[in-house]
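Notebook entry, structure prediction.
Reason for the run: the old model in the group folder had no record of what sequence produced it. Starting over properly, with the input documented here first.
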Amino acid sequence: MSDIFYNHLISLREVIDELNTYEIESEEKEELLGLIDQTFHHHILQLILDYLPKEYHEIFLTHFHQAPYDPELLIFIKERVVIDIETVIKTKAAQTKKEILAEIKKSKKKKR
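New structure, fully documented this time:
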């Protein structure tokens, strides 16, 4: 998983555990985990941009691209949004994880 400032708010453990029930090569598993990581990243980043006022998008994105791991990014966001962004990120991550797990399990049923 990429080192990103919001990682402490999400967990991919259930997804990894589910993938581990498949007999797939480690290279393929790493590729799948990369795609899953990107999916989470896109969903969370879109969520942040939806709540962050537009005048801060460029500053945020520039800092994010320079140092995506910097915990100051979360502080920057929290100071500029009117909602509890950590809770919203956790909720979105849980929803995304549920959807991904459903797709993984659906593909398992198709193979039988």
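Summary: Residues 7-111 form one domain.
The old model has been moved to the deprecated folder.
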